[in-house]
Protein backbone atom coordinates (compact mmCIF):
# COMPACT_ATOMS: atom_id res chain seq x y z
CA UNK A 1 0.00 0.00 0.00
CA UNK A 2 1.28 3.45 -0.84
CA UNK A 3 0.21 6.89 0.28
CA UNK A 4 -0.56 9.07 -2.75
CA UNK A 5 -1.25 12.11 -0.64
CA UNK A 6 -4.80 11.10 0.30
CA UNK A 7 -4.04 9.23 3.52
CA UNK A 8 -2.34 5.98 4.45
CA UNK A 9 -5.66 4.11 4.55
CA UNK A 10 -6.22 4.46 0.79
CA UNK A 11 -5.20 1.41 -1.22
CA UNK A 12 -3.12 2.23 -4.28
CA UNK A 13 -2.08 -1.37 -4.89
CA UNK A 14 -1.98 -3.13 -8.22
CA UNK A 15 -5.59 -3.66 -9.33
CA UNK A 16 -4.74 -4.96 -12.82
CA UNK A 17 -6.93 -7.94 -13.58
CA UNK A 18 -9.50 -6.99 -10.94
CA UNK A 19 -13.22 -7.27 -11.57
CA UNK A 20 -16.16 -5.98 -9.56
CA UNK A 21 -18.79 -8.46 -8.47
CA UNK A 22 -22.16 -7.98 -6.78
CA UNK A 23 -22.34 -10.05 -3.59
CA UNK A 24 -26.12 -10.16 -3.19
CA UNK A 25 -26.29 -7.20 -0.85
CA UNK A 26 -25.49 -3.55 -1.27
CA UNK A 27 -21.79 -4.35 -1.04
CA UNK A 28 -19.55 -4.74 -4.08
CA UNK A 29 -16.33 -6.72 -3.92
CA UNK A 30 -13.27 -6.53 -6.14
CA UNK A 31 -11.64 -9.82 -7.00
CA UNK A 32 -8.37 -10.63 -8.69
CA UNK A 33 -7.68 -13.89 -10.53
CA UNK A 34 -4.76 -15.53 -8.68
CA UNK A 35 -1.55 -16.55 -10.37
CA UNK A 36 -0.81 -20.23 -10.95
CA UNK A 37 0.70 -21.95 -7.93
CA UNK A 38 -1.31 -20.02 -5.36
CA UNK A 39 -3.87 -21.39 -2.93
CA UNK A 40 -6.51 -18.69 -2.83
CA UNK A 41 -9.79 -18.39 -0.95
CA UNK A 42 -12.05 -15.37 -0.60
CA UNK A 43 -14.94 -15.16 1.90
CA UNK A 44 -17.94 -12.87 1.69
CA UNK A 45 -19.81 -11.31 3.31
CA UNK A 46 -17.63 -11.09 6.38
CA UNK A 47 -19.21 -10.48 8.85
CA UNK A 48 -21.83 -13.04 7.79
CA UNK A 49 -25.35 -13.55 9.08
CA UNK A 50 -27.13 -16.42 7.30
CA UNK A 51 -24.78 -17.74 4.63
CA UNK A 52 -21.03 -17.49 4.17
CA UNK A 53 -19.89 -17.63 0.55
CA UNK A 54 -16.48 -18.95 -0.42
CA UNK A 55 -14.77 -18.28 -3.74
CA UNK A 56 -11.96 -20.80 -4.03
CA UNK A 57 -9.46 -21.23 -6.87
CA UNK A 58 -8.18 -24.80 -7.23
CA UNK A 59 -5.09 -25.74 -9.21
CA UNK A 60 -6.33 -29.30 -9.61
CA UNK A 61 -9.70 -31.03 -9.26
CA UNK A 62 -10.34 -33.00 -6.08
CA UNK A 63 -11.85 -32.78 -2.63
CA UNK A 64 -11.68 -29.62 -0.54
CA UNK A 65 -12.10 -30.18 3.19
CA UNK A 66 -13.78 -27.27 5.01
CA UNK A 67 -13.78 -26.97 8.78
CA UNK A 68 -15.29 -24.05 10.71
CA UNK A 69 -13.72 -23.76 14.16
CA UNK A 70 -15.07 -21.81 17.15
CA UNK A 71 -12.83 -19.53 19.23
CA UNK A 72 -12.18 -22.49 21.53
CA UNK A 73 -10.98 -24.60 18.57
CA UNK A 74 -14.04 -26.86 18.46
CA UNK A 75 -15.19 -27.90 14.97
CA UNK A 76 -18.75 -26.57 14.59
CA UNK A 77 -19.16 -27.29 10.88
CA UNK A 78 -17.33 -29.72 8.60
CA UNK A 79 -17.86 -30.68 4.99
CA UNK A 80 -15.99 -32.09 2.04
CA UNK A 81 -16.67 -30.40 -1.28
CA UNK A 82 -15.65 -31.65 -4.73
CA UNK A 83 -13.89 -28.84 -6.61
CA UNK A 84 -12.85 -28.39 -10.22
CA UNK A 85 -9.75 -26.69 -11.59
CA UNK A 86 -10.21 -22.92 -11.49
CA UNK A 87 -12.88 -20.93 -9.69
CA UNK A 88 -15.32 -22.70 -7.37
CA UNK A 89 -18.20 -21.07 -5.48
CA UNK A 90 -19.27 -22.72 -2.21
CA UNK A 91 -22.00 -21.63 0.23
CA UNK A 92 -21.94 -22.47 3.94
CA UNK A 93 -25.13 -21.96 5.96
CA UNK A 94 -24.29 -20.32 9.30
CA UNK A 95 -27.64 -19.01 10.55
CA UNK A 96 -27.85 -21.76 13.20
CA UNK A 97 -24.44 -20.95 14.73
CA UNK A 98 -23.79 -18.61 17.66
CA UNK A 99 -22.64 -15.12 16.79
CA UNK A 100 -18.93 -14.54 17.29
CA UNK A 101 -15.47 -15.19 15.87
CA UNK A 102 -14.53 -18.35 13.96
CA UNK A 103 -11.71 -19.68 11.80
CA UNK A 104 -12.42 -21.42 8.49
CA UNK A 105 -9.78 -24.02 7.63
CA UNK A 106 -9.53 -25.23 4.02
CA UNK A 107 -7.43 -28.22 3.01
CA UNK A 108 -6.85 -29.62 -0.47
CA UNK A 109 -4.09 -32.17 -0.80
CA UNK A 110 -1.01 -30.84 0.99
CA UNK A 111 -2.21 -27.23 0.88
CA UNK A 112 -3.98 -25.50 3.77
CA UNK A 113 -5.31 -21.99 4.22
CA UNK A 114 -7.23 -20.40 7.09
CA UNK A 115 -9.47 -17.36 7.15
CA UNK A 116 -11.00 -15.45 10.08
CA UNK A 117 -14.80 -15.28 10.03
CA UNK A 118 -17.21 -13.12 12.02
CA UNK A 119 -20.84 -14.16 12.44
CA UNK A 120 -23.04 -11.19 13.34
CA UNK A 121 -26.68 -10.47 14.11
Structural write-up:
The protein has 121 residues and is mostly beta strands. It has strands at residues 18-22, 28-32, 40-44, 51-58, 62-70, 75-83, 86-93, 100-108, 111-119. The protein has a domain at 37-119: Immunoglobulin-like. The protein has a four-stranded antiparallel beta sheet with strand order 6-5-8-9, with no helix packed on it.
Give the CATH H-level superfamily of the domain at 37-119. Macroglobulin (MG2) domain
- What is the H/E order? EEEEEEEEE
Name of the CATH class of the domain at 37-119: Mainly Beta
Structural class: mainly beta
Any idea what the radius of gyration is?
16 Å
InterPro entries: Secre_tail (IPR026444)
Pfam families: Por_Secre_tail
Domain Secretion system C-terminal sorting: 43-118
Organism: Spirosoma rhododendri
What's this, in brief?
Helix content is 0%, strand content 55%. It is mainly beta. The strands form three sheets. It has a four-stranded antiparallel β-sheet with strand order 6-5-8-9, with no helix packed on it.
What tags apply to this protein structure?
mainly beta; 121 residues; 55% strand; three-stranded antiparallel beta sheet; Immunoglobulin-like
Helix and strand arrangement:
Elements: E1 18-22, E2 28-32, E3 40-44, E4 51-58, E5 62-70, E6 75-83, E7 86-93, E8 100-108, E9 111-119
Antiparallel strand pairs: 1-2, 3-4, 4-7, 5-6, 5-8, 8-9
